[in-house]
From TrEMBL:
Transmembrane segments: 12-35, 41-61, 159-177, 197-218
Enzyme Commission identifier(s): 3.4.24.-
Active site (UniProt): E148
Keyword annotations from UniProtKB, A to Z: Cell membrane, Hydrolase, Membrane, Metal-binding, Metalloprotease, Protease, Transmembrane, Transmembrane helix, Zinc
Cofactor list: Zn(2+)
Bilayer disposition of the protein: Multi-pass membrane protein
Annotated positions binding Zn(2+): H147, H151, E223
Span of domain Peptidase M48: 83-323
Single GO MF descriptor: zinc ion binding
Record's protein name: Protease HtpX homolog
GO biological process, one term: proteolysis
Location of this chain's protein in the cell: Cell membrane
Keyword Transport on entry: no
Gene name in the database record: htpX
Amino acid sequence: MNLTVLKLRLGMILTSLGIFLLGFALVFAVISYFYGISFAPAIIIGILSFLIALNIIQWLFGPYLINAMYKAVEVTPNDPKYGWLIDVVNEVAYYNRISPPPKVYIADVPFPNAFAYGSPIAGRRVAITLPLLKILNKEEIKAVLGHELGHLRHKDVELLMAIGLIPALIFWIGYSLMWSGMLGGGGEGRNNNAGSLWLVGIGLLAVSYIFQFFLLYLNRMREAYADVNSAETVPGGAENLQRALAKITLSVDPETIERYRRKHNNNIANMLFFAPTEVQEDIPENNVDELIEYWKREKVPWYADFFSDHPHPAKRIQLLEKLKYSH
């Protein structure tokens, strides 16, 4: 196995375990302090049960809400304009051993995007927006789909939903303690005075916010791992995904090349989650090549994508470059 991929997998495992263990240890310690060790499991299980129920409802019916938000319409095999996408998705699904393949949707929104989603009720789905179809060729679309189906293959939605319970649990316990303090305390005992309840509650709200950065870090690794999936399963996936990334960035931010030429390091679009007012469809190939070469050499500081749920594009290009020569 490629050492880079091995380190990425190990990082995801350790980060996931760290979030779970640190979060539960903190919550158990706080609840035990205020209400006693014997009551802590029941309180934690009660709040977790409530959060899990909400998440399951959101997960089951979320695809229908996503379709409404993105104006997504299912593609049928006899569709004269987009029916070919079903064959493309089926091909990438075959590479990823996903059976049955996901249903294909076209999303009528004004930015280049593709995303995989689904639930036990809605089934697996993958959506492609109209601007993405206009700026990418078929091989580049396959590479993007290799990334998106990687999310389905790795069950990223379910994993991140489960780990997301930790900051939610910390938030709700902090919220409850804060209001208990504001209302005059949580009962008898030296630890349940209003002041300490309020302060600890506020502290837990702040901690829940900090945990969101751990989730962003984990999500960036999952996105990188989806890039790996495209490179490992789709023929030519690494190179074509590099070109797709460059084209998406240039389509939503045409001035990127000029800024790089002037050696400015302004923020640019991360893949698939940027909504410009206008998409540039005619992208010069030499600009694509130039941007990729720039990204290959760019030294990205650790904080460049700290607030993002996707890695900096240069990190993605450099990872894909390593994978091009490891298979």
